[in-house]
Amino acid sequence: MAGYRDLLRTPGVGRMIASQLTARFPSGMTSLAVLLHVEQQTGSYGAAGLVLAATSIGQAVAGPVTSRWMGVWGMRRVITLTALVCTLAVLALGVLPLNVPGYMAFGMLAGLSTPPIQSAVRTIYPKLVNSSQLTPLFSLDASLQEIIWILAPVVITLVSTQVGTTEGLLLVAIILVLGCGWFIAAPELGRVRIPRSRRSLGKVLLKPPVMLATVIGFLLIGACSAVEVGVVAAFDHGSLEAGLVLAIFAVGSLVGGLSFGHIPIGPWAIARRMLILTVGLTLTMFALNIFWLGGALLIAGLGIAPALAVLFAITTASVKFSETAEAFGWAGTGQLIGAAAGSAIAGFLVDGTGGPQGAYLAAVLFAIVGVIVSIAFVRYLPDLRDRDPSPYPDTEPVTTITPT
User: How far is Cα 34 from Cα 48, in angstroms, rounded to an integer?
Assistant: First the structure.
């Protein structure tokens, strides 16, 4: 913990972490808010899963593109524009009388305009700390983001069930505006300039570590999204137990990230972390009461933040600085497609089986495939135990820090 305290004392680090967490807080609310709202309006978890899938697909398509735009027009301009459009789309989802195709259309628009906060902040991080602090910073970031998943499900479930699902989506829009405004105002966004990439869009995916980070992220988040649908279906949309169980899931991730963040990253690191997730998710298949599910998901969560930290580190260590934003955009795309697949498959399985067991089965299968991929392609994963995880410098001088 002393090492994390030193990180937070580094100029700019605490401000960037706090502002980006606030800007990304709606990401922990939107899926559940949309799920509750669409299920209430249509009476179908399958329909709600389709809307979530459309939203995630929109985010997946936009991620690499908007991330790359930041190297052309600058981070502030891109994030301001996308935040404005995304806010309007979320408001439309909440207040307009729509059928399922209408919900899907505005959900996709909200996804397409999701501000590229993660790509921006993880591109900035290597310019704020020295190379020895970068891996612990990624771990701290992955751990603290679980605050979103601890608080956001409880908040949005409370508002949506006790006040109304429309009011829940209005709250998402308000926090989106306030959070993105704080992040945009951070001076680091003016000090760090992302150089324009000279390679065509998508070429960075040809690097095996980036492709693996994208694929494994797809499987990891697919498992988590299936769990979310299963928990909501297990406790019904009118119960606070769903939000509490999802919060426990996130607490496990927070504990795991802070506990394992100091461990050097070797080629087998991601396989070990995915195995922890798989074991915990497998336990969800044996009982559906809140105490058993809470305990099983607490164990599963221990692997999430550490796994994400590994994915961040191997992505950064494998690309040039000018390619980092796009690389993280593609990694985010993999995760978002995983969210779409996980939520849609789990939603249809809940409707088809008449219970949440199908959703938990989907989560387990996603996690098992993640372990298999991590083991099968371990030779392509970098060994960062004795290596600088910072991105490679570009061949031409790039000014990244300027006086305020």
Answer: 7
